[in-house]
Amino acid sequence: MNDAHPYSSSPVLEERVVTAAFAGASLAAHYVEGADAAVDPPPAVLREVCPVEDQDLDDSLADLGKVGAVKAPPVATRGFRGAISRLGFRVSPGIAEQEELDLREQRARDEEIIRQATWVRAASILVANPKGGVGKTPTALLLGGVLATVRGGSVCVVEVSDDAGALAYRAEGNPSLGLGELVRDVDAISTAGQLAGYTAPQTSYASVIGTVGRRPRLTDVDVRGVSEVVDRFYGIRVMDSGNQPSSAAFTGAVDTADALVIPLYNAGDAALEALALLDELKAAGGHRADLARRAIILRLSDGRPENSQVVARVDRIIARSGVELVFTIPFDPHIAERGQLTLSNLAAPTRSAFTAAAAGAIRALQTAVR
DSSP string of 281-341? Predict the structure, then answer.
């Protein structure tokens, strides 16, 4: 075994631990199911493992304890390496287990960023791409779900497409009132309890306001009015937009947004549409140009085969866009089902990827909302 013992700080202690590891490997062969062979270690080997007095070992370990509050290195818990660790010999994790530990640690850091962020007013995130079918609605729901779960609520995901979209269908629950009714009654909403009647509460602690029946086409005034009332009672508003960047509803969404998230698949048309949107916003100047400069791109996968040349082309388009924060979201069967989305049903890598993207959105909000 080539793993160095993390507590080896002296030649004497190192010799003892390395020798012990070999002896432990022989012992572990008796206890690991499916081991190729079980080797009986001679008692003499175990006696020779400890050529120094117990006090010397205690003193060496005590000296290590004086170094300070240093995080202990991880110990294997799985497979043969885990069996060795359970015998009392600290063995580092294998490659797969270490990758999982690293992913978990990074997610904890991202969650801390999300949890600790504060602003002096409500903040908003616009999920947009003029290309249809690129995952805008799942992105809005799952991004909002991560933010709500980590922050303990106070996140509302709102449909801002000019025509009725799929937000209510992809969200959990079957509310009786939704966006159309809220637009109708918006001037009468004065309490959080009243507003709650138009939402679909999620297990992630986010609230969703989508279309539950027929409704008129949204206007700029509608989006601004709904945004104003939502911002009175929620700390973060996530907007799920449509496919018409020239519509009045999209204009209202852009002008009330603090951060822009652009989802796309590895397809040339989706990337080109995203680039065109960014160019248009930059050309408009002012607030819209700021949104484009702070934009975040999410590269999703729908599970279909991806051509390497197309992926390379998308890489070049994204590089040309100047967007600095780009997150890759792995394929997830739960999203691909195209039914109601539950955050806890995502695979761990997908959940971690959305958490990283949410942390990126939080950093963008902290830059925008002062």
Answer: HHHH-HHHHHHHHT-EEEEE--SS---HHHHHHHHHHHHHHT--EEEE----HHHHT-S--
The answer to whether 182 and 160 have CB atoms below 8 angstroms apart is: no
Beta strands, E only, 218-335: 236-240, 259-265, 296-300, 325-328
CA dist., res. 291 & res. 338, Å (int): 30
Instruction: Going residue by residue through the chain, which has 370 residues, state the pLDDT in tens, using 9 for 90 and above.
Output: 444 443 334 443 334 333 434 344 443 333 333 333 333 444 433 333 334 344 444 444 444 444 445 678 888 888 878 888 888 878 888 888 888 888 889 999 999 999 999 999 999 999 999 999 999 999 999 999 999 999 999 999 999 999 999 999 999 999 999 999 999 999 999 999 999 999 999 999 999 999 999 999 999 999 999 999 999 999 999 999 999 999 999 999 999 999 999 999 988 899 999 999 999 999 999 999 999 999 999 999 988 888 899 999 999 999 999 999 999 999 999 999 999 999 999 999 999 999 999 999 999 999 999 7
Which residue bears the tokens 């922050």? 151
Q: Are residues 196 and 303 in the same domain?
A: yes
Q: Residue 202's Cα: distance from chain center in Å? A: 17
Residue with tokens 């120094």: 52
DSSP string, 9-47: -SHHHHHHHHHHHHHHHHHHTTTSTT-S------HHHHH
Residue 108: inside a domain: no
Distance of CA 314 to the CA centre of its chain: 22
Would you say residue 138 lies in a domain? yes
Q: Are 226 and 297 found together in one domain?
A: yes
Backbone angles phi, psi at 8, to 5 degrees: -75, 100
Here the CATH number for the domain that contains residue 277 is 3.40.50.300
- Residue 1 covered by a domain: no
DSSP structure string for 150-168: HHTS-EEEEE--SS--SHH
How many domains does the structure of the chain reveal?
2
For residue 72, the enclosing domain spans 11-93
User: Do residues 37 and 29 touch, judged by C-beta distance below 8 A?
Assistant: yes
Q: What angle do CA 209, 296, 312 make, to 5 degrees?
A: 125
The residue length of the chain stands at 370
C-alpha neighbours within 13 Å on the C-beta side of residue 359:
17
